[in-house]
Amino acid sequence: MQNNIKDDLILFNEIVNEFLNDEKLNPISKKINIEDLHKTLDLSLSENPITKKEFSESLRKLILSSPKSSSKLFFNQLFGGRHSKAVIGDLLAVLLNNSMATYKISGPQVGVEKEILFQVKNLIGYKENYGGTFPTGGSMSNFMSLIIARDKKNLETRNTGVKQDFIIYASDNAHYSIAKNASFSGIGKGNVRYIKSDSFGCLDLIILEKTIKSDLKKGYIPFYINATAGTTVLGAFDNIKEISKISKKYNLWLHVDGAWGGAVLFSKLYKRLINGVENSDSFCFNAHKSLGAPLSTSIFLVADKKDLHNSFSNDASYLYQTHNEDYNLGQTSFECGRRNNSLKLWTMWKAIGTSGISKIIDHQFALADYARNYVRASKDYKLYSFDDSLSICFNYKNFDPQDLCTKLYDLNKLMIGFGFFGKQSFIRLVIINSSNSEKEISNFFKIIEAFTLENHNSIKSIDI
């Protein structure tokens, strides 16, 4: 087939229109069992080209069979929904296909990224010597913060490797990337101290400080604390203000992993959940998790750009031939040929303003309150999460949450997951799609109630 972008965009529009209509009529795509995947869809790649009609039909079937993460019945992950203005930016970024390594090859798109970082810096409260970048996700943001903290403690580590017993501190509810990053950085998974969380899922400050003191007495070198703004399961916010006091007292790098909840930065009502963030050394949040931007839109900032540069700059004469390091963004990022992940947030922010983003956050918390009140109002439900969270963790009657969530998925009723806190398992409703209303949240519960009434004999039970 001919390589013709205009013709292919016509096909794109046809498939998109069909997909959006199907998303309303069939918000949950029919599940395809793994063993039936290649029988149901033609995913084969061949030596010879196929016809335009065959290509169109294969592509259409594939798209319509994929999970619809922006539908009204998708509550399964820490992302979902779709903001149209952000989608426009992402589609344009694909067509532009700029690499964000240098100003020469990305031009004004560098200004787009720097403007976002500047405005986020203002919201955090960092000083003018801040730095930042757009990593590929929250895990990469956490990794970059760990590398910077390691080098800040001993800059020679870049050349000699890790030769000291560096120690990392994080809540036992911190993101799983902490362990991976400890391995990647040379620190070692065994040098991560997982601090027990309190009954609200927040890092216990007393245990944290006791553990730091104990490690110092043993000759270890504490250097890094990971505080979480919105834990993966309960959506809990660690006490950043008090943790920052401990980090300053013992000269530890404080990173705030706000991948899930950090966008409260935009809200006048809920920014209080990250009080003290201005005292952190680094901070990240994912706009694709809470604001409806396409995957992935991750923002990472450091209080002092010198630290970012020390860890990630490197000579490359074939690449950095014009302009200074402030506009050659590859000097302060992990990746070189980095796609433009800033334009989609810029188009959204430009269109609706900071106040519009704030309304998105406030609306989601209002929906979370509605869902919690629904659970609290019925003796058939038991709530396991707390206020000021976008995660509503609950059980319905005595139905096993794992079995119930699996059967809802298998029978194309709901995309919903389960979680654990301590020894307790439960259904985890994530309020993430800002286009939802109370109607969709109420409908979510009605589906569960109707489904269990019809299938109660086939669903496992537990003690709750």
User: How many domains in all?
Assistant: 3
What name does the CATH topology of the largest domain carry?
Aspartate Aminotransferase, domain 2
Structural class determined from secondary elements: alpha/beta
**Extended strand count:** 12
Average pLDDT taken over every residue: 96
Tally of separate helices? 16
**CATH top level assignment of the largest domain:** Alpha Beta
Instruction: Classify the beta-strand content into a percent band.
Output: 5-15%
Q: Which CATH architecture of the largest domain is right?
A: 3-Layer(aba) Sandwich
Question: Can you put this structure into words, describing what you see?
Answer:
The chain is of the alpha/beta class and 464 residues long. It has 3 domains: 5-68; 97-347, Aspartate Aminotransferase, domain 2 (3-Layer(aba) Sandwich); 352-458, Alpha-Beta Complex (Aspartate Aminotransferase, domain 1), CATH 3.90.1150. Helix content is 43%, strand content 13%. Helix 4 (84-96) runs antiparallel to helix 14 (343-376), helix 7 (138-153) packs across helix 9 and helix 7 (138-153) crosses helix 13 (305-312). The chain is globular.
What characteristics describe this protein?
alpha/beta, five-stranded mixed sheet, globular, Aspartate Aminotransferase, domain 1, 464 residues, Aspartate Aminotransferase, domain 2
Give a brief description.
The protein has helices at 5-25, 37-40, 52-65, 84-96, 103-106, 108-124, 138-153, 157-160, 177-184, 205-217, 240-249, 287-290, 305-312, 343-376, 401-410, 438-455; strands at 74-75, 131-133, 166-171, 192-195, 221-228, 253-258, 282-286, 298-302, 381-383, 391-396, 415-421, 424-430. The chain is an alpha/beta fold.
